[in-house]
Amino acid sequence: MELAYYSDFAVRLVNSEEPLREKDTLTSVESVRALFGPMQQLARRAGEADITRLKGVRTRLRAVFTAAAEGDEVRAVDLLNALLLEYPASPQISGHEYRDDDTGRPLWHLHLAEHPSNATAGYAAIACMGLTFQLTDLGVDRLGICEAGPCRNAYIDTSTNRSKRYCSDRCATRANVAAYRARKRRERELSGRTADGSQPSTASGDR
User: I want to staple 76 with a disulfide (CB 3.0 to 4.6 A). Which of 22, 49, 67, 69 is the partner?
Assistant: First the structure.
């Protein structure tokens, strides 16, 4: 599993809340466990206390994305470094896949071991290390917050031309439609003002 994959854990956690819509899906142990995806051994450790713990990590991760979206790279890095210190990752060499040849030798690659402490510590360590990998590889400016209000979902821009502004195609379409309607409305208003200004005025001597 590539380290870049783990950054999805950070995005998934941040997007479990929609602040402007006052929606929060992180409300039960089941919803906490659903965040872990295939890492079910770690997910099974989750309990009621992890709901509050993960919400705290979520707030701090959102601050990283927000700082990056606002162009404050130093703050984004400082915030992420603080999380890395609090939730250290445990890298581990894994070889559960094998070469397609006659040697039968394993394909060695790096995994992040499941944290021995608790579910939140494990999730946070994985999410922060994955986000760190993307940040240092792609750049801080690749972390963003969706511009299609009221959506404030986090995203990581992996496009070749650094053009991503929205978290999904759905939000991009919604924003484009709204922009088109606003442009047409301005054109109608401008056309109406132009028409009013071109009407001949009645001089007092013509009465």
Answer: 67
